[in-house]
Amino acid sequence: MTHDIKFGTDGWRGKIAEDYTFDNVRRCTQGFADYLKSVYQSDKLQRGVVVGGDRRFHSENFAVASAEVLAANGIPVLFCGGGVPTPVISFSVKARNAIAAINITASHNPPVDNGFKVRDENGGAIDPDGLIKIEALIPKDISSVKRIKFDDGIASGKIMKFNADEDYIKQIKKLVDLEPIKQAGFKVLVDPMWGNGAGWFMRLIGGGKTQIIEIHSERNPIFPEMSRPEPIPPNIDAGLAKAKEIGADVVVITDGDADRCGFADENGEFLDQLRVYALLAMYLLDVRKQRGAIVKTLSTTSMLEALGKIYNVPVHETGVGFKFVAPKMMETDAIIGGEESGGYAFHGHVPERDGILAGLLFLDFMVKTKLKPSQLLAKLFEKVGPHFYDRIDTIIEASQKDGILKNLKENQPKKLGSWEIAKVNLTDGFKFILTDGSWLLIRFSGTEPLVRIYSEALSKEQVHQLLLAGKKLIEG
Fold this sequence. Notes:
Alpha-D-Glucose-1,6-Bisphosphate, Chain A, domain 3, 17 helices
């Protein structure tokens, strides 16, 4: 049976062996090959496409399937295999002067899923118009897909294996002074969530006075002790318990493909993604003295607007997903771009989320200020006031989506609980902004059958009440 392949917020994802099959990966790759041939002249095509993947079930073999199709279409393949972090694959596009990348990963999705991400010649997400064109070029069945055997591609030079680590490590050393972190004497708990981030912090900052204690580092595609490799509670609870047990100074968590990250403080208390984004922005502005635009999705923190005013830098808001963030970062030459899911990108690198680099920059923030994570947060709140955040994810059937959308469009509230709504932003979902600056966002996930309800407010209780109000809205 042929399945329609639809690109969501960040590529295509599906259930392994149900719709995510080898034939469907090949169809998807054929569509991408035809897109590249429609965009680039044949001489530029010869710069090639980077292909790699994560540690999920069969990812390295799905990557082989993609390589075989590209090579059969006359597009050289730079093959880095499985278990490679997404930011390493993305940077390889730039380092190898390639025109694009295919990355076999479902990022933070449940273990039953896998995915297919595409990247442009900058190493960033392809914009929405490009994704629509790729989707339209995917053949309806396998019969029109071109393919050669992987070994034949290697023998003919159409597929070239390479190690992507070396170029990435050189880049990281340009962006971060690693030695002071290595000698800081921190006790760092690293949780790569059974994913691609395993071993990277030990390689980069191990061997000095700083202790790196890593858990969940083996390859295990069923992701024990968590429902999915997403760096938020409750998936990180086992890691936080271990941090408290050993007295860690900080916890650094990377998601399944290491493009997103999470953190906990010296007390083993989770620092939510919105606070982390504001902290990283403050680090660049206050410690590194960088100036330039900040790019944020509408689902992330209003603390960034406050920092923008304090440091006199512009803040640009986009729809959710790096397919919006990456082009805006390129357009504005931004110093940082990010989203609510814990993905952050940085100037001078690639317009792509990098959980490894974000983790190192957070540690550098601690080194430069000689402050613990909770003290850094207190410093942030001194500037912008306290902010609280939470999110509810609700699984829905496809048949429910239209009814929920219709209800939200036709019955928009004037108040949420006892709070007046000042304005509504319909850029990507339904964002209700209150008179005190707090907000509630309701939107459908672009990668999973979920409706997400997000809120940021001035107290935990207000967040709780706003989320309950949002849940009532989607329940009609």
